[in-house]
Amino acid sequence: MWDVKVAGISIYEIFYNFFIYSFFGWIYESIYVSVREKKWVNRGFLNGPVIPIYGASATLLYIAFFNDRMLPVTQAGDVVSILVIFVSGMVLASLLEFVTSWTMEKLFHARWWDYSECFMNIQGRVCLKASLFWGFLSVVMAELLQPAMSRLIARLPRPMSEYLGYLIFVVFAADFTVTMVVTLKLDAVLGHMQRLREELYEAVAGHKWQEVREEFRTKLESSKAVEFLESIKANAEKHADEYREKVQTFTEQYREKHQNGLQKYIFRRLMKAYPNMKMKKHTGAFHDLRENLLRKAERKADKK
Question: Is residue 198 scored above 80 in pLDDT?
Answer without folding.
Answer: no
